[in-house]
C-alpha cells in the first residue's frame, strides 16, 4: 500500500482502514476518542471502522459534530475525552469531524479557550502540544487529515482558523472505499473544495516550490476525475484520484490560501444559511480567478496546463462550466445569500487568515464587488 | 526567508548560511564534525561558513572527501569524529561530502561496517539511529541535503546505495550564494544531475503523487534555468532556481530512480575513469528516455509540459541538444568508457538499487545495448 511519508504518515489506498489499529499501537494510543458525525454513523462507516479495532478496545464515540464545527461542540467532545481518560483522537468524517477532533486534541494538551490560539494575535506561542491524532477522511475533501489548520466557529460567531504545524495529524488513513457511497452533490462540493485548495495554494505568493508542485499535481488529478466521481460514484479509481487531490490540496496549502476562502468563511459562519464550505468555494472561485488574472498571468499558464485547458482558455469560465456540469448552483444567491448581507460579510472576509495569503488583497470595496459578482 | 518544512527543515535563500549556528543550537549539537573537500576549502567557502559559527566553537574539519565518497575516507572521518567527541555532522560541499558526512553520522550511532546496511540485503533493520546532520550544498546538485540515501564506494569496489528515512538530514541550509562561483562545466554536470533526478523520480512506478508534483516543479525550474546558470554563473536567480530544482529532485526520488542511475553508478565506481556522476547521468539520459518511451508515453506528456516542449517533441533529442548547448560531451566514449568495458559494467547496473525503481527493467542484454548506444 502506498505510504506517503511527509510530516503526516499517510496510508493511502482502498482498504487502508486496516492500518488504524496498528497505527494506534505504534503511536501508543490505547484509549482514543472517536470523533464523527451522525451522517457517517448512519452510512455504516463508523461500524466498519470500529470493526477493525482490537477486541476489547471500545473507544468512546462523539458523534455530535455539526455541519461546521463549533466551539460548543468541541467543548462537549473535550468533556467526553477527559471523562473517559482518553489519550488520543481518531477522526472519522469530513472536514468538520476532523477539525473538531484536532481541536479537541489541541485543547486537551494546551488548555482552553480556542480563541487564545488565534495566529493573527500571536496565538502560536500558547500551543504547548497536541494529543496524537489519526484522521480518516470520508470526503474528498478538505484534506484536513494532513493539514496544518482547523477552522472552528467560535461561540462569539467568528470563524477562526488556527494554523500551526503542531496541528498536522501524525497519521492519515486515506481509504477511498469510505467515499464510494458519497452522494453526487456532496462529491461535487467536496471535490471543488479540493480543487480550490490546489488553485489557491498555488497562487499564494509565499515561496514553497515543492508545495507548488504538489498543488499542480492535485489539480491535475482533481480536475480530470471530478465529473466521473460525481456521475459514477462507484468508480474506485475516480474516488482514489479525488481523495489524492484532496490530500494534495491540503499538503499544498501550507503556503496559505486566498480570497475564495476568506469570502467562503465569512458566509459559512452564518448558521441561517448552512452553506457548505465546498459549494461556497466552487461558486466564488470564478469571480476570484477573474480578480487575480492580471497579477497572476504567469501562474495561470501552469494552471491551464495542469487542467488540460488550451493556452488562452479562460480559467473562470472553465470553472463555472464545470460547476454547472457537476450540478452545483451558479451563484451565491442560490444558497440564500442576498445583496443586503454583503456589508456584514466583508469585515469577516478581511479579518480571515486566508485573506493574508491572497496574491492581490481585496479592499473592503473590492470584497463587496466580488460578493456582488458571485451572487 | 523561505523555510520548507518537510521531513528536513530547509532554510532556502541567499544568505541562508547564517542559519547554521541557530540550527546547531536548536538540534543541541555543540561539537559538530565539519565534513568537506579541498576544493570547497580552496574556494573560500569553508572559511565563510566557519565565520558564522559562535566564538569558541572551533569544529574539527575533515576535508579529505574524494570525488566519489569511499568507505576508506568515511572511516577516516569517523575516526576523527570519535577522537574529537563530536555529537553531530555538518556537511559542506557537493554530494560526496554530504554522503560521506551522512555515512559518518550513520556509523557513529549504528556501528560498522557500511555493507551491513545494504537495503537489498535486509540492512534497514540494523540502522539503530543516525547522529544529527546539517547539510549545506555547494552544488545543484545531488540534493543529498534532503535525500533519503547515500552512495558510497565500498572497499570491495562496489558502489552501495543505502536508502533509509533515518538518513534524511534534520536540517538543510540551501544558500545559492555558495554556488555563484561554481564553474560552468560543474554547473552543467550537477544541473543535469538535478534534472535527471526529477525525470527518473517522476517515471518511477511507485505511487507517490506529491513526489510526482515536486519532481515536475523541479524539472520546470531546472530545465528553464540551467543554460543561464552555466553561461552566467553570477546570475543569482538562476543559481536559486537550480538549487531549488536540485532539492526538489531529491525530495522526489523518495520514489526511487531508474536505469540512468544504475548505469551511472556502474561506471562511477571505476576509479580509473573518475567520471562525474552528473555528467554520466546527462550522457546516459537520452538513451534511457528512448528505452522507456513506449511504456511511459502518458508520463512523457507531463514531462514535455514541464520542460515547455511541444506536444510531439522527442525528449531524448531535447536532452541531447541541451547537453551540447551547455558544453557536456555527447557520449560515454568521451569520458573514456570503451566497448570492452561494457560486460563488466552490466552486472553492477543490474545489482544497483536504482535498477529496482526503473519503469522498464532492462535485462543484461538490454543494459549492454543501452551502454553501446550511450557511448
Provide an overview of this structure.
Two copies of one chain form a homodimer. Chain A is an alpha/beta fold and 375 residues long. The first copy, chain A, has two domains: 170 residues, Rossmann fold (3-Layer(aba) Sandwich), CATH 3.40.50.1970; 193 residues, Dehydroquinate synthase-like - alpha domain (Dehydroquinate synthase-like, alpha domain, Up-down Bundle), CATH 1.20.1090.10. Chain A contains 14 helices and nine strands. In chain A, the strands form two sheets. In chain A, strands 1-2-9-6-5-3-4 form a seven-stranded mixed sheet, with helices on both faces. The first copy, chain A, has a two-stranded antiparallel ribbon with strand order 7-8. In chain A, strand 5, helix 5 and strand 6 form a beta-alpha-beta unit. In chain A, helix 7 packs across helix 11 and helix 9 packs across helix 13. The longest helix of chain A is centred in the middle third of the chain and has 23 residues. Chain A is globular, with a radius of gyration of 19 Å. The mean pLDDT of chain A is 96. Chains A and B meet through helix 7 and helix 8 of A and helix 7 and helix 8 of B.
Give the tags.
homodimer; Dehydroquinate synthase-like, alpha domain; alpha/beta; Rossmann fold; two-stranded antiparallel ribbon; 375 residues; 47% helix
Question: Helix and strand layout, with pairings?
Answer:
The structure is a homodimer of 375-residue chains.
Chain A: E1 3-5, E2 9-12, H1 20-27, E3 32-35, H2 38-42, H3 45-50, E4 61-62, H4 71-83, E5 88-93, H5 95-110, E6 133-137, E7 149-153, E8 159-163, E9 171-174, H6 184-203, H7 209-231, H8 236-252, H9 259-268, H10 277-292, H11 297-307, H12 315-325, H13 342-351, H14 364-374
Helix pairs in contact in A: 4-5, 6-7, 6-8, 6-10, 7-8, 7-11, 9-10, 9-13, 10-12, 10-14, 13-14
